[in-house]
Write a structure and sequence with these properties.
two-stranded antiparallel ribbon; 110 residues; 4% strand; rod-shaped; mainly alpha
């Protein structure tokens, strides 16, 4: 008669506990990495807006103290579309002397 070898309940419990502990340690790092990648994507969008703002001011011969909005610089963006903040913030473009900014704190041009 052949004996079937199987894991005991205690062995399975230990394996599940170890996996749970590893996940508990890894999840905060994964959340932080996602937040950082969203912030970096937002900053990249702000850099595109800044470039479009500069091109707009040169081509339209607009002074630095002029008030502009996103629709003014949209034709100078890729595909003519205004980018969206990955964390649902709003992009703010006002005077040419100011850099574009996001409504979410920490999302600023370097």
């Amino acid at each position: 008669m052949a004996h079937k070898r199987a894991f005991t309940f205690v062995q399975m419990l230990i394996v599940v506990t170890i996996i749970g502990l590893l996940l508990a340690m890894a999840i905060p790092y994964l959340v932080r990495a996602r937040t950082n990648s969203n912030a970096n994507a937002c900053i990249n969008n702000l850099q595109m807006l800044y470039g479009a703002q500069e091109i707009y001011s040169r081509e339209e011969h607009v002074l630095g103290t002029s008030l502009i909005n996103l629709t003014n610089i949209a034709p100078y963006l890729p595909k003519g579309q205004i980018p969206k903040c990955p964390m649902n913030g709003n992009y703010i473009v006002d005077y040419l002397t100011n850099n574009p900014r996001c409504s979410i704190s920490g999302h600023v041009l370097p």
